[in-house]
Amino acid sequence: MFIGIGLLSVIALLIIVVPFLPLYDPYGQSLTDAMLPPFASSAHPLGTDSLGRDVLSRLALAGMVSVGIAAIVVALNFIIGVTLGLIAGYRGGWLDTAIGSISDIQLAMPVVILLIALSAVFGPSTQLMVITLGVTYWVGYARVARAMAMGLRDRDFVVSPLTQGGSHGRTVFAHVLPQVLPQMAVIASFDIAVIVGIESSLDYLGLGVQPPVPSWGAMITEGQKYLQINPMLVILPGIALFLLVAGMQFLSQRFTTESVAAERKAGRR
Questions:
Q1: Terminal Cα distance for the chain, rounded
Q2: Nearest alpha-carbon partner for 214 in 54, 8, 3
Q3: Which CATH architecture has domain 45-268?
Q4: pLDDT digit string (tens) for 98-132?
Q5: What is the pTM (predicted TM-score) of this model?
Q6: Exposed (0-12), middle (13-18) or buried (19+): which is 185, by Cβ within 10 Å?
Q7: Which of 36, 105, 164, 247 has its CA 20 to 30 A from that of 12?
Q8: Structural domain boundaries in the chain
Q9: Beta-carbon count within 10 A of 94 CB
């Protein structure tokens, strides 16, 4: 857990502290200062790219963009998945069958190919990527929420409000949802790392964040042209991407272990 916190702390410093530095300017160009290596200039601690733009500033802005996109996508998947999962597990019947069929279709649909097809029709954009990812990764939330709702719907604390005249919607919201949320938080912490990796891959292919807004994937694509001259243009965004994804993975594994231990302890009681 401490490793994950340490890795994420570096990213937090990058995206929170760097924008307040006086030299922060991710869009400023200076061809006379182009392709400076790291630590060659006090004005550009991590060097510059082919257009003379400050690499540190662009890494920070790209990190903010990636984290923001991941947060929005995970939130959309969380809402869609938990809602459909609770409905399927609590109500059962034909609703359960219909939602299960939709989730099976969703799992069989390759997201990258879908986004390529949509980009060919509407053109690549950040909004298209966010919407596509936001409605395609909800199945994990739905299946876990469904399984938990099925196990809880006959429990006394769920049935009791109904016998006293409570509505099904209020019962699910007040008594079932709080029991489901801890597991959803575990899935969300894991999915943030997954979404950041997918988003960077799509940016690398030119299907996500569009210039001049920087992204780690696009920075790697641009840096490949100058790999022999200045390999740090590829290495630095790669390191930033690794720190964020690895940090979230370490934390999600810790949360998973604690969740399993809590469930076993509750079962022994």
A1: 27
A2: 54
A3: Orthogonal Bundle (1.10)
A4: 999 998 888 888 888 888 888 888 888 899 999 99
A5: 0.87
A6: middle
A7: 36
A8: 45-268
A9: 8
